[in-house]
Design brief:
This protein has 112 residues and is of the alpha+beta class. It has a single domain (3-94), classed as Orthogonal Bundle (Arc Repressor Mutant, subunit A), CATH 1.10.10.10. 63% of the residues lie in helices and 17% in strands. The chain has four helices and three strands. α1 (3-24) crosses α4 (82-107). The longest helix has 26 residues, at 82-107.
Amino acid sequence: MDIENAKVQMRKGILEFCILKIISKGEVYASTMLSELTSAKIMVVEGTLYPLLTRLKNAGFLDYRWVESASGPPRKYYLLTDKGQEFLAEMSSTWDELQASVNQISNASPQA
């Protein structure tokens, strides 16, 4: 098994959750999401982010609004819908349980 591939798969598994968490803080522009993900060492390119945002919007979890920009074309700002907030709450609960389980296993004393 290739370790780099394993790392990529682990990150992909939590990408949707991380994006929803970022958007839950308030309306956000896609480049801001990319910056926050990159600073957290979750490397994502626009070609990955935009299709995921579209899927989340089509599922009813996100909405967006256009905001005029003085320095170029209008910008699309994303926000969570009520359905998206409920979905994120469920994902957060699952994440907390999963994190606790992994920590328990990781910190367990070796079996004799």
